[in-house]
Amino acid sequence: MSLPSLAEPLSRVGPRRLGSLRLRLTLAVPLLSTLVVAVFEWSLGGYESAAEGLARTAWLVLLLSAAQLLLIETLLLRPLRRLAAGCEAMESAPVPLTPEAAVPAPGLAAELDRIGHAMLRARGSLWQQDQQARELKRELAQQRQLLQQAHSALEARQRELASLARTDALTGIANQPAFDEALRREFKRAQRQRGLLALAVLDLDQFRQFNLAHGTAQGDAALRRVAGLLKDCFKRDTDVVARLGGEEFVALLPGLGMAEAQGLLESLRDELRALRLPDGQGGLTLSIGLAAASPAHPYLSAQALLQAADEALYIAKHAGRDRLSLAA
Question: Which residue, among 202, 199, 204, has the nearest Cα to 306 in the 3D structure?
Answer without folding.
Answer: 199
